[in-house]
Amino acid sequence: MERKSVWFQELSGPEVVDWAKTQCDLAILPLGAIEQHGPHCPNGSDAFNAIGLAERIGQNSKAIILPCPMYGSHPYHHWGVHGTIPLTFETHIGLVTDIIRGAAVSGFNKFIILSAHGQVSSTIVAVHKLGIEGHFVLSMHWYDFLRDNKEIFSDYMWHADESETSLALYMYPQFVDMSKAAPGEATGLISSKWKIAPGAEAKPGQMYHFEGTFALPEKFDMRKSNGCVGDPTKATKEKGEKAVTKTVKMVCELIDEIMTAYPVGVKPVTA
Ligand SMILES: [Zn+2]
Fold first, then answer.
1. Quick one: fold of 8-261?
2. What are the sequence ranges of the domains in the chain?
3. 217 Cβ partners below 8 Å, 6+ apart?
4. 46 CA to middle of ligand 1, Å?
């Protein structure tokens, strides 16, 4: 059975209901943000990365892709800076839970939240609120798929850096100006040995990077720095393609496992 689009918003009501009932009742919610990404990348980078990854996952699986809300929630060090429009955590938790509840009405029983922006502070709360209501929801950041990212990138994932800019060069080069790309500065308030870098494998004694107010807001403020953390000059389209291909392949493998264990119509979680 063919479908004319992977996107929920491009299909009719009867089409999505029929797809969820007969083909695949797993939906993916891509989550991005509106946030400055240095002078070389667009403010919608995280949303574009989430949309680009989710669309490719939809094309390589039977999952339906829910429309991506362009706004996201932000850690404390992103607030009050130019180019960034943060939602409060409460707003974002409400947004995500409302979207999943709404999609479930059309017959979707399994959900993957695919984030391309650091907002686990709200997505984890949303997942557990939804679990209490009987929804099966997995939440991931695409950097979860880069545990051995030294195969692709020379550094872990930071911000407007080698990894994010590589994805941009691969998926939306028309919005990128590499002549403006320059390395950012280190941003830690305590030694980096105590913190798991996004995408890094954890070592004993390390805190997850959202478990502290580790970063200095001025490193994300374009009035005081170039707004980059990491080195975007090392970005290439080829690295972006490799990271996207790897992420899409692993998410599709996860979808396969879920749909084999819990075929269409089966709810893995009940309230
Ligand atoms: Zn980003």
1. Rossmann fold (3.40.50)
2. 8-261
3. 76, 77, 78, 79, 80, 81
4. 5
pLDDT mean over 216-225: 81
Residue 2 CA, ligand 1 centroid: distance in Å: 34
Radius of gyration of the chain (CA): 18
d(CA 130, CA 52) in angstroms, rounded, equals 26
Going by their DSSP bridges, the two strands 195-196 and 110-115 should be labelled as unpaired
Instruction: List the 26-31 sheet strands across, edge first.
Output: 64-65, 26-31, 110-115, 136-141
Q: What is the pLDDT of residues 118-164, one digit of tens each?
A: 899 999 999 999 999 999 999 999 888 887 778 899 988 889 999 99
74 neighbors 35 (Cβ within 8 angstroms)? yes
Alpha carbon of 257 to ligand 1 centroid (Å): 29
Quote the CA–CA distance of 153 and 149 in Å, as a whole number: 6
Residue 159 Cα to ligand 1 midpoint, Å, equals 5
Distance between Cα 204 and ligand 1 center (Å)? 27
- The pair of structure tokens assigned to 212 is 């502290």
For ligand 1, the distance from its centroid to the CA atom of residue 163, given in whole angstroms, is 9
- CB within 8 Å of 14: residues ≥ 6 apart: none
Distance 221 CA to ligand 1 centre (A): 14
Give residue 117 CA to ligand 1 midpoint distance, Å: 5
Of the listed ranges 161-170, 181-190, 260-269, the least confidently predicted one is 181-190
Q: Rounded to 5 degrees, what are φ and ψ at 30? A: -75, 135
User: What per-residue confidence (pLDDT) applies to 195?
Assistant: 86
Q: Is 149 helix (H, G, I), strand (E, B) or coil?
A: helix
